[in-house]
């Protein structure tokens, strides 16, 4: 279960926009090269989460979770009900922020809106982490959050804390420990099982409604070993090479919008109500 909301000092975070709905103004929390600094270990929860994640995310585990949750059938919720649920969750894998996930969602979306990104990409920023509601269904955070990576083939040293995979049974499997594992060269990421979590789950929830580019961003935004470090290119096909540019376009807004400037959900809601109604149905199957 995600940790409950903490008390943080309120920082003024909005200014009027031409439309009347205020933008969030975010000053960078720190230099860009200081983000994702896992060596600093500012929060002890981070490495502990990855210890559990890297030991438990096996191919069998991923297949079992897909069978449990896909197709989505747990409950029905609106986007705002899911967003409100995220106000209960602080991501234990994130070394850069301990704000509740609702506020991270709004920070990301507002950074995209400020720069005039496409409306579908702004909505993607708002909802990209909604799959973390899995924590409210009883899933531990190590099975919901954190960087994703392929299972069923060798674990790359480009994955955060690669040494922790020594405790994963698949690391000793004669097939799963090889470069290609159960896959073949250029098979395409849609044929690859990534570690289970909020990305794949949400991609399945919204797949009927959003553009293919949005689904791709949602599915792979936590796959840092690929979109930041260039790993696993041998599993990609032409579609992946074309679509990965959208993940790279999205990633700076997801990462560098994290700051102490706290958005006001009530002030921002009119804009996002209209955006959600434009692109998604009133209620989604989760």
What does the radius of gyration come to?
A: 18 Å
Instruction: Return the average pLDDT rounded to an integer.
Output: 86
* Main beta sheet: 2 strands, antiparallel
The secondary-structure class comes to mainly alpha
Number of helices: 10
- The end-to-end distance, rounded to whole angstroms, is 17 Å
Weakly predicted, low-confidence segments: 1-27, 33-37
H/E topology pattern: EEHHEHHHHHHHHE
Q: What's the count of strands?
A: 4
Whole-number tally of structural domains: 1
Shape: globular
Architecture overview:
By secondary structure, the chain is mainly α. Helix content is 38%, strand content 3%. The protein is built from ten helices and four strands. The longest helix is centred in the last third of the chain and has 19 residues, at 238-256. The chain is globular. Residues 1-27 and 33-37 have low confidence and may be disordered.
């Amino acid at each position: 279960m995600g940790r409950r909301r903490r008390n943080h000092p309120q920082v003024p975070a909005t200014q009027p926009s031409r439309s009347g709905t205020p933008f969030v103004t975010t000053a960078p929390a720190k230099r860009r090269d200081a983000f994702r600094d896992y060596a600093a270990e500012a929060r002890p929860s981070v490495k502990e989460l990855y210890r559990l994640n890297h030991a438990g995310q096996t191919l069998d585990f991923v297949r079992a979770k897909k069978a449990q949750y896909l197709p989505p059938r747990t409950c029905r919720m609106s986007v705002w009900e899911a967003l409100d649920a995220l106000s209960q969750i602080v991501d234990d894998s994130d070394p850069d922020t301990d704000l509740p996930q609702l506020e991270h969602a709004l920070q990301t979306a507002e950074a995209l809106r400020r720069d005039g990104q496409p409306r579908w990409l702004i909505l993607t920023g708002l909802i990209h982490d909604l799959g973390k509601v899995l924590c409210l269904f009883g899933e531990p955070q190590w099975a919901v959050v954190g960087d994703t990576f392929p299972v069923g083939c060798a674990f790359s040293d480009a994955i955060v804390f690669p040494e922790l995979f020594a405790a994963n049974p698949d690391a000793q499997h004669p097939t799963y420990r090889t470069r290609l594992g159960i896959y073949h060269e250029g098979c395409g990421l849609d044929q690859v099982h990534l570690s289970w979590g909020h990305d794949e789950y949400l991609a399945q929830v919204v797949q009927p409604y959003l553009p293919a580019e949005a689904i791709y961003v949602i599915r792979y935004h936590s796959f840092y070993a690929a979109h930041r470090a260039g790993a696993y290119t041998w599993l990609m096909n032409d579609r992946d090479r074309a679509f990965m540019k959208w993940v790279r376009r999205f990633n700076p807004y997801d990462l560098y919008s994290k700051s102490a400037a706290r958005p006001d959900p009530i002030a921002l809601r009119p804009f996002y109500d209209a955006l959600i109604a434009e692109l998604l149905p009133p209620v989604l199957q989760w």
